[in-house]
Design goal:
Blueprint (H helix, E strand, L loop, with lengths): L3 H8 L4 H15 L2 H5 L1 H4 L5 E3 L2 H10 L3 H8 L8 H7 E3 L26 E3 L4 E3 L6 H5 L7 H28 L1 H20 L4 H29 L5 H25 L3 H9 L16 H6 L3 H14 L15 H5 L12 H28 L6 H10 L1 H11 L6 H19 L6 H29 L2 H32 L3 H17 L14 H5 L4 H13 L8
Antiparallel strand pairs: 1-4, 2-3
Helix pairs in contact: 2-11, 2-12, 9-10, 9-11, 9-22, 10-11, 10-13, 11-12, 11-22, 12-18, 12-19, 12-21, 17-21, 17-22, 17-23, 19-21, 20-21, 20-23, 21-22
Organism: Heterocephalus glaber
Subcellular location: Apical cell membrane; Basal cell membrane; Basolateral cell membrane
Pfam family, one: Sugar_tr
Length: 554
């Protein structure tokens, strides 16, 4: 029986249909960025201080400038922990009493300024920003700062649950229907989040977005890799992720133009409704249909692809039948990911590498922090670092393969983290340079794990396998803030040591995976189990054919 890859060689591996589909799905990939990293702008924390109606009235009466008001009334000047004091505490002083003078009013009190009692902010905060964020609207600072952490954790919890659940549904009921449902739910919950009346509703709708958005992004990735031929699969997979990076750059510009979080949320959410038009543009995956023994539907789609590509179907490829294994096992199971030895090994290694990629990717950003005061430029520059990573992959994996560049990328990120520990603080430029190299390395590793995950699983559990393994990325996203902020309380560089160990181990484990360069996507469990032995099997077959004795002619 000819495989889908055999058919694509005749009707076009990356012709008009595949290019059109890739462009449409790349737009969808770019639209995922506001959910994955939108917290940078939606949850922006500006400089803030306690607001006091008494201070405001006294300042107006005395005609103080802002600098004078802060100098006379703000606690913590000269204190070691002045940031916390200035942002979260205020003097327990009755600012309305008539004995206070306009020239250093606290000096007229019997207690020295340093001995005045302090209390948490009682009347809210003043934020030094022309725009707004969920932080400024719902006062997610000081004692309520954990609510911002919960907001981001809710997204990652949604990623985790949705990746597993929707991954199973996509392998059970089809890529296309699950893809469209995730688009509808994501767009609707995004709009509802923008008009949420309070923090609780906003958190709920953000959780729903997390449940469907990442699963939809990965289903889209699976679809495009199953539509293209073998020789174009890795390039398409990498550029699909590059479109995500382009989305990062666009998000920075949109956030700069719209500094108010509700309008920003609407601006990045409403375009998602346009993706529902893909119902008429993108068909179901023929590979999935064949794995489900729906060969007639698969053949209709293959003929549609051939027509769009301006190709004709050879007579020898006009009929298809499903593999025996696909007929016997139509429904994917989580046990299929660990039932056989090779697939079990692939699953465990891929899960660890997804976890590692998330921890290092997010952890390096958190540890390095913002280099300057312009959040938009900082975000833009950090996104630019990801482009060289994609092009390095493109120019190496076809010549070297998948395993070695992937392993080197993980190890380079680990070594960069370890090197940063020993660089003195006065060489800040070197620290930033090494951090960028580490960011580039882990970006390469992130793109490689997404590419190779789709190449190691057989068709009927491919979507489930990728989504289950990638769910470890979400667990990493939940744990990373605790790794960074809690370990720095012990030693500032301790998170980098942990990242180094995690990255180096990930690089070593990658070398245990089979090389997928130049190999067709496995269609059955047997194909996946024998991925490390096909070359030897083929050579034995050729050897036996060469050694067959000649038959004498009479």
């Amino acid at each position: 029986m000819p495989s889908v890859d055999d058919i694509l060689e005749h009707i076009g591996e990356f012709h008009f249909f595949q290019k059109q589909t890739f462009f449409l799905l790349a737009l969808f990939s770019a639209a995922f960025t506001p959910i994955y990293v939108g917290i940078v702008f939606l949850g922006f924390i500006p400089n803030h201080r306690c607001w006091s109606p008494g201070v405001a009235e006294l300042s107006q009466r005395c005609g103080w400038s802002l600098a004078e008001e802060l100098n006379y009334t703000m606690p913590g000047l000269g204190a070691a922990d002045k940031a916390f004091l200035q942002q979260c505490m205020e003097y327990e002083v009755d600012w309305n009493q008539s004995t206070l003078s306009c020239m250093d009013p606290l000096s007229s009190l019997p207690d020295n300024r340093s001995h005045l009692p302090l209390a948490p902010c009682q009347h809210g905060w003043v934020y030094d920003t022309p725009g707004s964020s969920i932080v400024t609207e719902f006062n997610l600072v000081c004692a309520n700062s954990w609510m911002l952490d919960l907001f981001q954790s809710a997204v990652n919890v949604g990623f985790f649950i949705g990746a597993v659940g929707i991954g199973y549904l996509a392998d059970r009921f089809g890529r296309k229907i699950c893809f469209l449902i995730t688009i509808l739910i994501n767009a609707s919950s995004g709009v509802l989040m923008a008009i949420s009346p309070n923090y609780t509703w906003m958190l709920l709708f953000r959780l729903i977005q997390g449940l469907v958005s990442k699963a939809g992004w990965l289903i889209s990735y699976i679809l495009i890799t199953e539509f293209v031929g073998l020789s174009y699969r890795r390039t398409v997979g990498i550029f699909y992720q590059v479109s995500f990076t382009i989305g990062l750059l666009v998000l920075a510009g949109v956030a700069y133009a719209i500094p108010h979080w509700r309008w920003l949320q609407l601006a990045v959410t409403l375009p998602n409704f346009c993706f529902l038009l893909y119902y008429w543009c993108i068909p179901e995956s023929p590979r999935w249909l064949i794995s489900q023994n729906k060969t007639k539907k698969a053949m209709r789609i293959i003929k549609h692809i051939a027509k769009k590509n301006g190709k004709s179907m050879p007579a020898s490829l006009q009929s298809l039948r499903a593999d025996e294994e696909a007929v016997e096992k139509l429904n994917p199971s989580f046990l299929d990911l660990v039932r056989t030895p090779q697939i079990r090994k692939h699953t465990l290694i891929l899960m660890y590498n997804w976890f590692t990629s998330s921890v290092l990717y997010q952890g390096l950003i958190m540890h390095m922090g913002l280099a300057g005061g312009n959040i938009y430029l900082d975000f833009f520059y950090s996104a630019l670092v990801e482009f060289p990573a994609a092009f390095i992959i493109i120019f190496t994996i076809d010549r070297i393969g998948r395993r070695y560049p992937w392993a080197v990328a993980n190890m380079a990120a680990g070594v960069a983290c370890l090197a940063s520990v020993f660089i003195p603080d006065d060489l800040q430029w070197l620290k930033v340079t090494i951090a960028c190299l580490g960011r580039m390395g882990i970006t390469m590793a992130f793109e490689m794990v997404c590419l190779v995950s789709a190449e190691l699983y057989p068709t009927f559990i491919r979507n489930l396998g990728v989504l289950v393994c990638s769910s470890m990325c979400d667990i990493g996203g939940i744990l990373t803030p605790f790794l960074v902020y809690r370990l720095t309380d012990v030693w500032l560089e301790l998170p980098l040591v942990v990242f180094a160990v995690v990255g180096l181990v990930a690089g070593g484990l990658v070398l245990l995976l089979p090389e997928t360069k130049g190999k067709a996507l496995p269609e059955t469990i047997e194909d996946a189990e024998t991925m490390q032995r096909p070359r030897k099997y083929k050579e034995n077959m050729i050897y036996l054919q060469v050694k067959k004795p000649d038959i004498p002619l009479n």
